[in-house]
Structures are given as C-alpha cells and as structure tokens.
C-alpha cells in the first residue's frame, strides 16, 4: 500500500497485544531501535543525494544513492540513480550490481536479471552477484530458472574448494534453494570466522529473505543481539 505520509512509498505496521509491553517493554524497545535504524538510513540517503548533487557526474555517488535509496524504499529514485551510474561508468561492477539490486527490490525481475548478469560478466563472476542472481532465478515467477540457479550454486561450491567464498554467500544461496541445514551450517561458519559481511544478513534484501525465514537463523541472530 502507499504511505500515509507525503514523499514516502510505504508504511510499517506493528501488531502486538494489549499487554505485550507491560512486562519487559519489548514493544517500546523495538520501536525505539526501529526509529534509530530508519533515521540512520534516511540520513544516508540525504548525504548520498548531497554528494550526487555536488558531483553530478560521479558514478560512485550515483551508485551509493542507488544502494541507499533501495534500502529506504525509494525504488524509482534508486533505479534512476543506478541508470546514471552505469551511464557514467559502464565498466563498474558496483554500478551494475546495485542497478540490478534496485530493480530486484522494485520487482522488475527481467531488468534485474540483465543487470546482475552484466555485473557478473564485468567482475569475472563475482560471488555476491552470483548469489543475488541465484535467488532471483529460483523465485516463483515467469523468470524462474531452477536449473540455472542450481548450476550457480554448484559453481559457488566449486569456487569454495579453490579460493575464498564468504560463508554468508553460501548461506544465502543454500537458503534460497531450500537447503536449510546447509544454510545454517554456513551461517555458523561465517560467525566463527567473523566474516565482515554479517551486516548483509540482517538487511531487508531480496536475496536473503529465505534465510530470514528460517527459525533457527532468527534464534541465532537473537543470541548475538541482531534480532
């Protein structure tokens, strides 16, 4: 649904029972933390807009705007910035990847596939782009290609045998294919190794929604204070 407030695209509704906040105050704490996160995201969007305005031909500024606007739910702005970023630097992996990410968030799956594939080709098959494409190709839609998604998964497993692949990439990819046991195993490996991409797992990204839906994942995140 559209937002009740001008300049915003969506609202967040929180459902709770009358006495839920009475004992441990979890509702108030949740709302407080949510406000902090939203304020930080919006501040990031504002700063990226200023950077793009200051240097309108900067592909990097447009890429950051595209990424942050997507996370804030400003999908059309994100796509516009993403298109500018690839126009200014057609050989940039980040520009193509976050254009694909913006399309993916907005539900333009065909365009997302094309942009992800461009990012994959430019980067020599970057692991994160592969994981994002795998997730999209395995989603129930007219663009679903389960065989290709499985091929990408096996490629990531092969790459892990000869080089470094983030365990969180493998966790997201496993979850997307319904391999929950493997997803949790790779999650625990990433936590043990202090993989720096942990923050990606708790974002509302289209490529980690299957991982977020696994009850054990939520339980593990709670134990480390991220849920």
What does this protein structure show overall?
This protein has twelve helices and no strands. It folds into two domains: 123 residues, Tetratricopeptide repeat domain (Serine Threonine Protein Phosphatase 5, Tetratricopeptide repeat), CATH 1.25.40.10; 103 residues. The radius of gyration is 19 Å and the shape is globular. The chain has 227 residues and is mostly helical.
Structure summarized in a few sentences:
This protein is an all-alpha fold and 227 residues long.
For the structure shown, list the relevant keywords.
2 domains, mainly alpha, single chain, 227 residues
Q: How does the major sheet shape up?
A: none
- H/E element order: HHHHHHHHHHHH
Proportion in β-strands: under 5%
Number of domains: 2
Radius of gyration: 19 Å
Helix tally equals 12
Alpha-beta classification: mainly alpha
From the spread of the alpha carbons, the general shape counts as globular
CATH class group of the largest domain: Mainly Alpha
Q: Which SSEs are present, and which pair or pack?
A:
Elements: H1 26-54, H2 59-72, H3 75-88, H4 93-106, H5 109-123, H6 127-138, H7 146-162, H8 167-176, H9 180-193, H10 198-201, H11 209-212, H12 215-223
Helix pairs in contact: 1-2, 2-3, 2-4, 3-4, 4-5, 5-6, 6-7, 6-8, 8-9
């Amino acid at each position: 649904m559209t937002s009740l407030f001008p300049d915003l695209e969506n609202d967040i509704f929180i459902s709770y029972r009358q006495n839920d906040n009475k004992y441990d105050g979890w509702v108030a704490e949740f709302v407080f933390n949510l406000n902090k996160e939203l304020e930080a995201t919006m501040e990031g969007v504002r700063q990226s807009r200023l950077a793009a305005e200051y240097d309108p031909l900067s592909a990097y500024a447009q890429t950051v705007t595209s990424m942050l606007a997507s996370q804030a739910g400003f999908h059309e702005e994100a796509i516009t910035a993403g298109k500018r970023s690839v126009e200014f630097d057609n050989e940039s992996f980040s520009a193509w990847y976050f254009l694909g990410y913006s399309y993916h968030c907005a539900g333009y799956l065909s365009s997302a596939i094309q942009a992800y594939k461009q990012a994959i080709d430019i980067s020599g098959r970057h692991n994160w782009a592969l994981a994002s494409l795998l997730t999209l190709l395995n989603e129930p839609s007219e663009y679903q290609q389960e065989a290709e998604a499985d091929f990408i998964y096996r490629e990531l497993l092969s790459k892990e045998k000869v080089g470094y692949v983030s365990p969180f990439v493998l966790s997201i990819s496993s979850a997307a294919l319904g391999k929950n046991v493997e997803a949790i195993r790779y999650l625990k490996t990433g936590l043990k190794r202090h993989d720096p991409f942990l923050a990606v797992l708790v974002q509302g990204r289209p490529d980690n929604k299957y991982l977020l839906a696994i009850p054990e994942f939520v339980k593990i995140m709670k134990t480390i204070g991220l849920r």
